[in-house]
Amino acid sequence: MSDDRNIVIRDVSKFYGDVLGVNRVDLEIEPGITSLVGPNGSGKSTLMNLLAGLLRPTRGEISVLGLPVTRPQDLFRQFGYCTQYDSFPRGATGWQFVFSYLLLHGLDRGEAERLTARALERVGLVDSAHRRIAGYSKGMRQRIKLAQAIAHGPQVMVLDEPLNGLDPMVRAETIELFRQLAGEGQHVLISSHILHEVDLLSDRVILISNGYIVAEGEVPGMRAEVEEVREQPLQVFVRCDRPQWLAGRAFELDHVTEVQLHDDGGGLHLRTRDADRFLRLVAELVAEGGVEVEAVGPADSDLQAVYRYLVDEEEEPS
Amino acid sequence: MTVAQESAARPRLDWARLARQVGGLVRLELRRLLLTRRAVILGLASAIPVGIVLLVGSIPIGGQTVLERFGNRIVYETIFETVFLGAILFFGCLYVFFNLFRGEILERSLHYLLLTPLRREVVVAAKYVAAVAAVAVLFMASTVFSYALIYLPVGVSGAIEDLTAGPGGRHLVAYLGVTLLACIGYGSLFTLVGMVFRNPIIPAGALYVWEMLHFLLPPALKKLSVIHYLKGLLPVPLSDGPFAVVVEPPPATVSVLGLLAFAAVVLAVTALIIRRMEIRYTED
Q: Is the overall model pTM greater than 0.90, yes or no?
């Protein structure tokens, strides 16, 4: 956990009682735009809330630029978080909202006013700054949250579905803003459940499904190949403590077409036409304590098949 | 240089910056408390004792006002103890302090505070101080105005004489002190209750019964009530009735220091809870 430039997540799991949030996440995120993509309920917000210290991991460690997330007094000088919550302090205007939280960074009023004006300008809300947020449109509320998250000039910006509710023109401006921020050497971590929304702007994509990181890396051009793999069964590997038992459970599923145990007895490969349902089953079995999973992911040679989960999810939300 | 870069270069705790941060949070909280509907409700509640003293001091019954018939100190003490301390301060503090964190959880805006570079313990302390300041200003003003009205029968010159040369000034200071300590004691308690309970009715009801029936409690249990220490500081002793378990009131220093220590401990517990708190509004 010593990398002072990166976001480091080591073996992090989060359970809400018996319900899996994320499991065994290991990531090291470098500066630039990174997109966290997964279907609704896949664990994106959980992972972001863990990064911001709003949730505590059940297991594992997280550091941001070398800072532990348990020290808000250090972390939030470097960290801005635009959450998924569409809620605001009652009665606040856009200006008051950004300005008053900037004062909590210990700035004098003049500096806070300057940064408030700059942030509102960056998100295009100067004209509406002195209106109450309660009267804002959905897109304006998204933008004022974004302004509040970036106003203090953090090195790391974590933005949960920041493009939701934005009209096409504002969306393009916002994407340009993300590029500017990343161009200044900052971390911009964006979540989305819509793949095509982020795959063109991201330097790197992390795919998450049912609480597991199923793929990560640079993915230029992958989207074009998605259609080719749609109809093919996807090969998935699972490393776990009870592969035979899991194989038995997998064979009960009509979408699983083939199961093969690993020679070392520590895992299995299978082919499924519905990987999302299979991963859901694995998550349930883990939560019930039926099996201890060390790793799970796509075993196909490229990431296209993994995208298919997301494309399927996008078209047929569960 | 951005705020982040500037502060990254700062290796040690910057007290001036911390003071500005706390000042910012206190002002934010004061605005929330004093410039909203909450302040109107509190203002109306704090006007009740003023109205009562005005009534008993200005409306004659059988040729004399109640103040004249029973003596202004006894009447004021009775109103202060039963109406102000026994109801308005208790429920006023409940209203403000229960919502100190619970209100923002229900509003789903607490995360904005927790995403600022302030230790969560500091957030608790600053919000609490702001709330004590807001409530104390309103209720101490109510105490001053209502106390001033007990001089209606003797006029301005009589009031000045009693306040400067008689016991009036000392009594007023005692009432103001009790008001402030009530805000501090009940405030800390209800801040904690607001962190632990989603609905105040059952815990507040239980606490109210405990506080109001403290005079029936055995001496050892009396020590576990806030009002026991507050009543010990009141300047005019009143009887609690024939069924009361009578004990010697604690010395003033024990009452004051005890209540301050109690508030500090309760706030420390609250800080511990919020330090471990997760933001999962769906559960609230």
A: no
What phi, psi does A293 have (nearest 5°)?
-100, 125
Question: Does residue A268 contact residue A238 with C-beta atoms inside 8 Å?
Answer: yes
- Say which of A76, A85, A91 has its CB closest to residue B108: A85
Q: What is the mean pLDDT of chain B?
A: 90
Q: What are B179-205's pLDDT values in tens digits?
A: 999 999 999 999 999 999 999 999 999
CATH code linked to domain A226-315: 3.30.70.100
**In B, residues 248-277, which contact A (CB 8 Å cutoff)?**
276
Tell me whether residue B266 is in a domain: yes
Q: What are the contacts of A196-204 at 24+ separation with CB within 8 A?
A: A196/A223, A197/A163, A198/A35, A198/A37, A199/A35, A199/A37, A199/A223, A201/A33, A201/A35, A201/A175, A202/A33, A202/A34, A202/A35, A203/A32, A203/A33, A203/A34, A204/A29, A204/A30, A204/A32, A204/A33, A204/A34, A204/A35
- Summarised one tens digit per residue, pLDDT across range B13-71 is 788 999 999 999 999 999 988 888 888 999 999 999 999 999 988 888 888 888 888 88
Indicate whether this complex's ipTM tops 0.90: no
Q: What is the pLDDT of residue A224?
A: 47
Fold of the domain built from segment(s) A7-217: Rossmann fold (3.40.50)
Interface test with A, best of B25, B33, B116 (most A CBs within 10 A): B116
pLDDT in tens, B124-175: 999 999 999 999 999 999 999 999 999 988 889 999 999 999 899 999 999 9
Q: Domains of chain A: which residue ranges? A: 7-217, 226-315
Distance (Å) from the alpha carbon of B261 to chain A's nearest alpha carbon: 27
The alpha carbon of residue B198 and the mean position of all alpha carbons in its chain are separated, in whole angstroms, by 21
- Per the domain annotation, does B108 fall within a domain? yes
Residue B9 in domain:
no
* B212 assigned to some structural domain: yes
**A85·B36 Cβ contact <8 A:** no
Q: H or E stretch including B89?
A: helix B89-106
Distance of CA B7 to the CA centre of its chain: 37
Give every residue of chain A whose pLDDT is below 70, as ranges: 1-2, 195-196, 219-232, 298, 300-318
pLDDT at A227: 46
Which structural domain, as residue segments, surrounds residue B49? Answer: 18-283
Domain count, chain B: 1
